[in-house]
């Protein structure tokens, strides 16, 4: 079953975020707390959204996303920040169902794209995404300001 996340799902979502970070060799970088997630997902003015995949009433996967905007198209889109299914539940269609649900949200709302980033070495994810018809945007390079560089830029 795929559904929108509820406040009761926050502990499971954080657990899955940590599992994803561990898989991506970056568990030490996770700083998010349950309180932060609860506030961002379910506070007065949420800007982040999540769907979960359930198996026997247990959350086994999630998709966390937010809106983007295309100045060229004049429409919103969905940026998929994280998609993760516990390893023992992969191959059962949960990842595909989560991504399909986001495409349904986009279609129903008139959003013209669903996009995300994937680590270059994550061949299983790349194969999965390409099997659904997704294609890499090779002409674009992602840049990021964070940490000290962000602070320095903000104070310049």
From TrEMBL:
Coiled coil: 13-40
Signal peptide positions on this chain: none
Key words, A-Z: Acyltransferase, Coiled coil, Transferase
Domain N-acetyltransferase: 1-155
UniProt-listed PROSITE patterns: GNAT (PS51186)
GO MF annotation: an example: N-acetyltransferase activity
Family: Belongs to the acetyltransferase family.
Protein name: GNAT family N-acetyltransferase
